[in-house]
Amino acid sequence: MEDPTTPISCQNATKFNSEVSTTYRNTNQPFSIAYGFGFSAGTIGQDVVKLGLASDSSAFTLANIYFGQTVQKDTQQTGFSGIFGLSYSASGNNVPPVLVQAHKKGALKMPLYSIYLATEGNVHWKPGGVFTLGDADKKHCGEIVNWIDIIPNNYGHWKFELDEIKLESNVIINGGQSAAIVDTGTSLLLGPREEVIKIYNHYGANLSDHSIPCDQNVGPISFLINGHKYEVTKETLILKRGKDNNKCIFALSDFGTATNLWVLGDPFCRKFCQIHDIEKLRVAFPEAKKKH
């Protein structure tokens, strides 16, 4: 039975019990973080953090790590019990993210982490991807040919300049003066409304419900970043809607507000791995290796 003092927003989540930890320390310092969609708030604690199965002796273990103990969040039904922030800087009350703390302790082989997303996510218990600490993922990702410097910002976003966006027939959607954020937590590509409308019209998709015929002939969307072309293709741009092979979703949406920002979500992240350098503040997008 739930503790009546537990906020409703946290009652469906797996909770951390600091009273049974012999290594826990309460800092009595409050924190609050606003995300692109939602927020969380609570107090900052310090304890041993283990990444991996608790019963696995080879799990990555870090001592004296600061973390947020959430007692308030914006939704009841999230499907998960916490957020493992992967920013390069503190986003709440000057407490660095876990991997930045790990790097400062000398716990990482290299100041890198890598993310590989499988083309098919966690469907029927198939592996959804691989998260690599302290190195580039050479098994699932190709060679790094382009390092992209991050634009410093107050939110700790992995934000960078976006040179240009083109469609299949060299139709220029964006001629510069834009920026982009890479984010595995965003399921679609997001962009300025005017530019998104142009792409929808070009490919014959319906922006009102994001629908598109599954057999529609859709060429790649090319993002030019630091002089290097990254093409997002039909494989990750058109998503099946349930079991109906005739109804598909075009994985692109707009912010609905005036902005020059793009968010390169899962359609981009499934095509390209993300290698993050938390020391030199740069990111690389080697192409994900195809399954054989």
Strands, helices and their partners?
Elements lengths: L24 E10 L4 E13 L8 E14 L24 H7 L7 E6 L11 E5 L13 E3 L9 E4 L1 E3 L5 E3 L3 E5 L6 E3 L1 H11 L7 E3 L7 E5 L2 E5 L1 H4 E4 L2 E7 L1 E3 L6 E4 L1 H4 L4 E4 L4 E3 L8
Parallel strand pairs: 10-18, 11-17
Antiparallel strand pairs: 1-2, 2-3, 4-5, 4-19, 6-20, 7-10, 8-9, 8-13, 12-16, 13-14, 15-16, 19-20
Describe the structure.
Helix content is 9%, strand content 37%. By secondary structure, the protein is mainly beta. It folds into two domains: 8-104, Cathepsin D, subunit A, domain 1 (Beta Barrel); 114-284, Acid Proteases (Cathepsin D, subunit A, domain 1, Beta Barrel). The radius of gyration is 21 Å and the shape is globular. Residues 1-5 have low confidence and may be disordered.
What are the defining features of this structure?
292 residues, mainly beta, Cathepsin D, subunit A, domain 1, 2 domains, 5-stranded antiparallel sheet, 4-stranded antiparallel sheet, 20 strands, globular, Peptidase A1 domain-containing protein, hydrolase, disulfide bond, protease, Peptidase_aspartic_dom_sf
